[in-house]
Design a protein that fits this description.
- This protein has three domains: 13-202, no CATH class; 207-290, no CATH class; 299-354.
- Helix 7 runs antiparallel to helix 8 (206-223).
- The protein is elongated, with a radius of gyration of 26 Å.
- The N and C termini lie far apart (88 Å).
- A hairpin with a 2-residue loop joins strand 2 and strand 3.
- By secondary structure, the chain is an alpha/beta fold.
- It has helices spanning 2-11, 17-29, 33-43, 103-121, 160-163, 176-181, 190-198, 206-223, 230-248, 260-289, 292-315, 320-328, 331-341, 347-355, and strands spanning 52-61, 75-82, 85-94, 133-139, 172-175.
């Protein structure tokens, strides 16, 4: 007997510290009512959502200890008033690399633990009804989720008179990678921003990753201006620093920043260093191959990208026509535009004096 127990203990996998860090950072994000409200309103497209009073959102419990004393760290439970009763929202954060084919069974167990907790602590009588529970699985693995979403799908088919005993319990799935492929994500939604930040890893190179992250950071800075969201701002910055940037741009030294403005500056400086490094590499290759023309084109592209970033930082998103004009300018004209930028009041103040050079 002892030998069997020892064998089982050897096969038990050790907790992944990186997954724990990711789970905890996401758990902090979804400990804010604004995140949960955007999650429900933006992704659960069902009629009953209109009856939810989001001003009553409150954390009910952030983990459970089951009978075998195994505490969960990747779930969080909210409750909110839905009509005359409470609705419980069970968020399960799933960050393992492979799909859990028996997730529906896990969900059934967790909701059973929640109901047992309510029975044991709330002194429910025989006349009381258990509250509804919305189980949501948020998954950000690299492969697409293909596991059964209802526990009934995992039970062997049986004759009709036995089928009535087959359990039915479904969970709501948010597969972040699949969401990233969709064009129907809700606009100005914090969960959408988080999903898009996660999916920057699909960009073709680190420069594109950093550019995409910088654009989303600017949006978040604008959306989270309210003073009551200060802690959410800090938690998102911490998640970006500790989890997202090390994972999506692993070859970059990440300095400490404390707010979105500092992060935007850091990303801009990082991109400029990349451009400079790319230019230096292009120069060396050009010396070897005698391709000075290619070197000049590389320098001009880098200067055009730098000017576009500066214009976006000062005036907002640059339209496609202006972007095309900038990419057609020669090095001298680009340099002149940068010189006018500090005193310019509009895009035209910067671009118009050199447009004639294109005709």
């Amino acid at each position: 007997m002892a030998r069997a127990q020892n064998t089982r203990s050897k096969k038990r996998k050790k907790p992944d510290p990186n997954r724990f860090k990711h789970d905890q950072s996401y758990k902090r994000l979804f400990s804010h009512p604004k995140m949960v409200e955007d999650l429900l309103q933006g992704f659960v497209h069902e009629d009953w959502i209109a009856q939810v009073d989001f001003t009553t959102l409150e954390v009910f419990k952030d983990s459970f200890v089951s009978n075998n004393l195994i505490e969960r760290h990747d779930d969080i439970i909210w409750r909110v008033r839905w009509g005359e009763s409470w609705l419980y929202v069970y968020l399960l954060l799933e960050f393992q690399s492979s799909v859990d084919n028996f997730m529906a069974v896990r969900i059934m167990v967790y909701i059973g633990l929640l109901y047992q907790y309510l029975v044991d602590t709330q002194e429910m009588t025989a006349e009381d009804k258990l509250p509804p529970v919305l189980p949501i699985v948020i998954y950000n693995g690299s492969t697409r989720w293909n596991a059964a979403q209802d526990v009934s799908e995992l039970v062997t088919e049986v004759p009709n008179d036995l089928d009535k005993y087959r359990p039915h319990l479904r969970y709501f799935l948010i597969d972040e990678g699949k969401c990233g492929e969709s064009q129907t994500l809700p606009l100005q939604n914090l969960v959408t921003a988080i999903i898009r930040l996660e999916n920057t890893r699909t960009q073709k190179n680190e420069q594109e990753v950093a550019k995409a992250i910088a654009e989303l950071v600017k949006l978040l800075e604008d959306w989270l201006k309210d003073s009551e969201l200060v802690q959410l701002r800090r938690d998102i910055v911490t998640w970006l620093l500790r989890v997202l940037l090390p994972k999506n741009v692993p070859n970059v030294q990440i300095p400490e920043v404390v707010n979105f403005q500092e992060m935007d500056t850091m990303l801009y400086e990082t991109m400029q260093n990349w451009y400079q490094t790319a230019e230096e590499r292009g120069e060396k290759r050009g010396e070897k191959r005698g391709e000075k023309r290619g070197e000049k084109r590389g320098e001009k592209r880098g200067e055009a990208k730098m000017l576009l970033h500066l214009l976006t930082d000062k005036f907002g998103m640059v339209d496609k026509q202006t972007e095309a004009i900038i990419h057609r300018l020669d090095e001298k004209s680009l340099f002149e535009c940068v010189g006018r930028l500090s005193t310019a009041h509009s895009l035209q103040d910067v671009i118009k004096p050199v447009q004639s050079s294109l005709t």
